[in-house]
Each structure stands twice: as structure tokens, then as C-alpha cells.
Write a structure and sequence with these properties.
16% strand; Aspartate Aminotransferase, domain 2; single chain; 2 domains; eight-stranded mixed beta sheet; 455 residues; Aspartate Aminotransferase, domain 1; alpha/beta
Length: 455
């Protein structure tokens, strides 16, 4: 293995120093501050296909993909041309356009799990609206969520578990009133006993259970289909709505997301990321009966000046049209499986304690274990020091992962086999560095910060 020269960050460092005079921490979303990895943040100048370029003209193979929405890669010509075409007529009207109908028809005609949809401007906004809808529909107040699932920075859901099998949420951010957290019940993932007890303790009080069916914001905590099916049955029995937060998994693992992959019909689904083609967007959908409760048809109020923004709708139309082409998901998912299996084979041959969970075109490295991790509590925080070393080596080798070991990686249609082969070699070299005898064991070393790891 040849010695890797450290990349220049001079321009990025200057931009970051200036940014800190404008923004809290110098960023507009916490994980971008690189607090969990080495060095100062990279300021990105350009993206094209599977590649990124930073302000110092370093080129990287990108596995972040703007945290998931760029399933076709950066600057895809079909999206770019559609956006430019629509922009010629204006960028925002605060009024209906035919583009909203077109994108809604693309989604609804190819997704049997929802009958009506409402566009918003972010995944957080979609989840916030879905929670309000569930409470309005059931006329109940309490929400049940799972430790390790992230649903945006909604006050009632920005909570963590306390001690015990079933607990009320404890606020995990300043500014979240205790009264809000007290309406949220938090239990561990993949735990039928805790789920059953929660419904026993709070009978007829739980409006909704919300879950990432493919938890991908705190590692990739793959759930057994049996547990998700049990969750569906418990909700049905108790008159509680089941919300699938598919902001990441929707249109990523399949066109119909995890609902389609597992063949489980939730009551409400939230979307984001991919349906905007790289522009800000979110959506929530359900049966016509449930959605009839949303204003102006029903009493549950929700609004947004930029909801259904024509430029975002245009990007979504262009992207989803590509995703509907025959064989798109099969090709992408097979490519990802091959990529992950080759890395695992390399690691296993050298007895490196690392596991890579993957589903569809999403993957995640877990260090100091070879087991599949299904609960947030089973992630060893000390192992994040392994990721810090890996991340630094990969940046210097021209490979970009999101700057947190709790974040997942994404493969896009723009990642050719040749590009993935190049990235694999860099990953092989990085694993040799991470597990070199000269490297200290992660056990006992300073903990990488888990704070601010979510984009």
C-alpha cells in the first residue's frame, strides 16, 4: 500500500472560517461541521455523475449523494433540462400548477399503498403533518416512536428513550418542552415485548406509531419483516395509525419503498429526498378516507407557500420517470450487493471485525462487530473512532463518505462498475489502515461525538 498524500483544504478552511462568522458553528445543518471526523469541512463546488469537487479542486467519488436524493447521481441531464425548461416560466406562484398533478399521478398510479398525497417542502414537514393528521383522525394525543429512528426536528419526536422497557421520551434538544416529550412514548426497535406492554399501559391513548421501516439515520438498523408485520397487526387491533417514515427508503429500495418491499400497508407514509430530484420537497400520503381530514376538505390544518413548488415538481417528474424504466432497481441493487460483498470478503479474509449492512442501494459500516445490528443501543460508540480513521484515509484517496459514522452511504445509477472498483480499492486500503497493528484499539479511546450527526 503506497503512502497517501493529504489533500489540500486551504480554500475550504478559509470559507469555513468566514462561515463561522455568519452561521452557528459555520454551517446550516449540524453534521456538515465535521465534528465527528478529522479536519475542517469540505466546501463543495461542483457535482457531476458519481463525483464531487470541492473548493480546492479535489475530486471525490461520492457515496453521500446529498444524503440520499441523488439516486441518479449529480447533475443528471434529464433533471437539469426539465428544471431549466420550467424555470423559464417562473419559479414560484403560491398557486396550483399542472406539474403538481403530473408528479402526483406518477406516484399514485405506481403506488398501491396511498390514494391521495399532499406535497410539502421537507421530510420534517411531512412527518410533522402526518403526526397532526393521525392525532386529528384518531382524536388521541400520544405517539409511539422507536429509539434509533429519526424523524426530522419535530419537537414531539426529537426525543430519546429514558431507562426501562417502555418510557416517555426525554428531550434530546434544548427548547423542546417537557410537555411535548411527555406525549411521546419511546421503546427499543425489534422488541415485541416492549411494544405489547406499551399498548397495555396506554390503551386507547396512542394515536400513531411512527417508524422508519428501514431505519437509516442512526446506522442501518435492519428490522425483521416479522416485527414490522407484528407492528401492523398491533396497530390495527388497537385502532392506532401506523406511519411509515420513508423519507430515506421511499423510492430508494424500490419505487414503492419499504411498504412495497415488505408488502406491509401502513396507514400514512411520509416521503422526501428522492421525489425532489435534489430540490427541497416532502410529501405525505394515505387512503382517501384519512386524507379527507386534511384542510380544506377536513379539520386538520396544514399549509405551505412553497408546497408544490413548480421547480421542485419538475425535478421530481424527471427523476421518477427515470426510476420507472424497466430494470432500474434490479441493476442498482445488484450493483450495490456486489460492491458490499466484495468488501466483506476482503475484510473476512483478514479477520477484520467489520460488518456492512445493506438493503437496496443503501449500505453502512459497523466496526468491531461482525453481527447485524438492529437496535441503536447495540452500536458501540467507541467504534466511531474506526470510522474517523477510515473517513480521513478515504478523503485523501478521493472517496467521499458523509462525515459521521452513524450515517449511511448511497450508491447511485451514476456509479459504474469501474468507479466502484476504484472506490473498493481505496476502501480496502483504508481498512488495512484502520486495523493496522500500529492503530490503537477503539476500546478505551476518546469517544467520537454522537451529537449533531444527523443531516
Amino acid at each position: 500500500m503506497s503512502e497517501i498524500k493529504e489533500i489540500s483544504r486551504e480554500n475550504s478552511s478559509e470559507l469555513y472560517a468566514k462561515a463561522k462568522t455568519y452561521f452557528p458553528g459555520g454551517v446550516n445543518s449540524p453534521v456538515r461541521a465535521f465534528k465527528s471526523v478529522y479536519g475542517t469541512p469540505l466546501f463543495i463546488k461542483k457535482g457531476d455523475g458519481a463525483y464531487l469537487w470541492d473548493a480546492d479542486d479535489n475530486q471525490f467519488i461520492d457515496f453521500c449523494g446529498s444524503w440520499g436524493p441523488l439516486i441518479l447521481g449529480h447533475n443528471h441531464p434529464a433533471i437539469r433540462e426539465k428544471v431549466i425548461e420550467v424555470m423559464q416560466n417562473g419559479m414560484s406562484f403560491g398557486a396550483p400548477t399542472a406539474l403538481e398533478n403530473e408528479l402526483a399521478e406518477l406516484i399514485l398510479s405506481n403506488n398501491r399503498f396511498i390514494e391521495k398525497i399532499r406535497f410539502v417542502s421537507s421530510g420534517t414537514e411531512a412527518v410533522m403533518s402526518a403526526i397532526r393528521l393521525a392525532r386529528g383522525y384518531t382524536k388521541r394525543d400520544k405517539i409511539l416512536k422507536f429509539e434509533g429512528c429519526y424523524h426530522g426536528h419535530v419537537d414531539a419526536l426529537l426525543v430519546k428513550a429514558g431507562s426501562g422497557l417502555v418510557t416517555f421520551g426525554e428531550t434530546s434538544s434544548a427548547g423542546v418542552p417537557k410537555a411535548f416529550a411527555d406525549e411521546t412514548i419511546v421503546i427499543a426497535l425489534n422488541d415485541k415485548e416492549a411494544l405489547t406492554k406499551a399498548f397495555g399501559d396506554f390503551k386507547d391513548q396512542i394515536a400513531a406509531v411512527i417508524i422508519e421501516p428501514i431505519p437509516a439515520n442512526n446506522g442501518l438498523l435492519l428490522q425483521h419483516q416479522e416485527f414490522l408485520q407484528y407492528l401492523r397487526e398491533v396497530c390495527t387491533t388497537n385502532g392506532t395509525l401506523l406511519i411509515f417514515d420513508e423519507v430515506i427508503s421511499g423510492f430508494r429500495v424500490s419505487f414503492t419503498g419499504a411498504a412495497g418491499l415488505y408488502n406491509i400497508n401502513p396507514d400514512i407514509i411520509t416521503y422526501g429526498k428522492i421525489i425532489g430530484g435534489g430540490l427541497p420537497v416532502g410529501a405525505y400520503g394515505a387512503s382517501a378516507q384519512i386524507m379527507s381530514n386534511v384542510s380544506p376538505e377536513g379539520p386538520v390544518y396544514q399549509a405551505g407557500t412553497l408546497s408544490g413548488n413548480p421547480v421542485a415538481m419538475a425535478a421530481g417528474i424527471a427523476q421518477l420517470t427515470e426510476l420507472l424504466k424497466p430494470g432500474f432497481y434490479e441493476d442498482l441493487n445488484n450493483k450495490t450487493k456486489s460492491f458490499v460483498n466484495d468488501i466483506l470478503t476482503f475484510a473476512n479474509q483478514r479477520n477484520y471485525p467489520v460488518n456492512i449492512s445493506h438493503i437496496g442501494s443503501i449500505f453502512w459500516f459497523a466496526f468491531d462487530t461482525t453481527d447485524t445490528i438492529r437496535k441503536a443501543e447495540d452500536i458501540d460508540p467507541h467504534s466511531m473512532n474506526r470510522f474517523k480513521t477510515m473517513h480521513q484515509h478515504l478523503l485523501n484517496s478521493g472517496v467521499y463518505f458523509g462525515p459521521s459514522g452513524y450515517e449511511v452511504g448511497f450508491i447511485s445509477a451514476a456509479h459504474t462498475m469501474a468507479i466502484l472498483d476504484t472506490a473498493k480499492q481505496a476502501i480496502f486500503d483504508s481498512l488495512n489502515v484502520v486495523f493496522a497493528p500500529s492503530q490503537p484499539s477503539s476500546e478505551g479511546t476518546a469517544l467520537a461525538s454522537k451529537d449533531d450527526f444527523r443531516e
